[in-house]
Amino acid sequence: MGHTLLEKVWDLHTVRTLPSGQTQLFIGLHLVHEVTSPQAFDVLRARGWRVARPDRTFATVDHIVPTRERTRPFLDVLAEDMIAALERNCRDFGVRLAGLDDDRQGIVHIIGPELGLTQPAMTIACGDSHTSTHGAFGAVAFGIGTSQVRDVLASQCLALEPMKVRRIRVTGTLSRGVYAKDVILTIIHRLGVGGGVGYAYEYAGDVIARMSMDERMTICNMSIEGGARVGYVNPDETTFEYIKERPFAPGGEAFERAKAWWRSMASDPDARYDDDVEIRAEELTPVVTWGVNPGQSVPVTGRVPAPNGAGGDAQAIADALGYMGLRGGEPIAGTRVDVAFLGSCTNSRLSDLREAARIVSGRRVAPHVKALVVPGSASVKRAAEREGLDEIFRAAGFEWRSAGCSMCLGMNPDKLQGSQVCASSSNRNFKGRQGSPTGRTLLMSPAMVAAAAIAGEVTDVRALFT
Amino acid sequence: MKITRLEGTALPMRGDDIDTDRIMPARYLRAVTFEGLERHLFEDERAGSAAGDRAGTVHPFDNPVYRGASILVVNRNFGCGSSREHAPQALQRWGIRAIVGESFSEIFFGNSLMIGLPCVTASPDEIRELMERVEERPNARLRVDLEAGTCALDGFRCAVMLPGHARDALVTGTWDTTGMLLERYDEVDRVASRLPYVAGF
Ligand code: SF4
Question: Distance from B17 to chain A by nearest Cα, in Å?
Answer without folding.
Answer: 8
